[in-house]
Amino acid sequence: MGELDGQVALITGGARGQGRAHAVTLARAGADIALCDLLADMGTLTYPLASAEDLDETVALVEKEGRRCLAGQLDVRDSGAVDAFVAEVDGSFGRIDILLANAGVSGGHSVYEVPDAEWEDICGTNLTGVFNAIRAASAVMMRQRSGRIVATSSMMGRMSSPNLAAYVASKWGVIGLVKASAQDLAPFGITVNAVAPGNIATPMVVNEGLIRAVRPDLENPTIEDASVVLQMLHVQPIALLQPEEVSEVILFLVGPQATHITGAVIDISAGASARFTA
What we know:
The protein has about 280 residues and is an alpha/beta fold.
């Protein structure tokens, strides 16, 4: 018996990276899974986003765990599309017990250089998209009088770095939204928390655009070259964490041991939080 047997988890940004790891981890614990992703690139970003093939692979991995999986293509910035997918999941499974508002993108410009389109893409996905998902899924959970919501923030939602104005703003915003949502939804038996990962070994971090951005001093930098800089953001001597490390924390937050944890931010950042004041 898995600790999530009989439950249904909806994961945004589920085609690859952290979303895929979360889907497989929760499926292994017994949950049926609903996944959605954009499945298209954004011209304002320097790295490719997930593909339909990525989503198909994640569905296969979930089904390999013996769980049902529903997948859809949508843009979390589109509230109507999010509402429609939540309704489809509710109609197919009859409930939504867990929401992982995980969809996110990253880009880098200073506050005086960031283009309007980049600001809108990053903040729209990372913050408005989380809001759209929480608002839609919480309606189902309120009917059930129970639910677990975990949003993906970042260590950059608790600190800052140059040339990441939109990303930092959006991830700080996620934490504020989580705390407000935790208070609004507590009377309905719904918990709302955030995870704040450090540098995770996913395509959002391990891509040519970011590697070049952190090592502009080199003509053809590699991920090993970039790791020297990435490790400096952590306290422990490691440059990249694995997405499954975040998944295990999420499994705890949505499991029976975390009934009375809400409005919290859990750092999975190799000690970066040791530099925070709170």
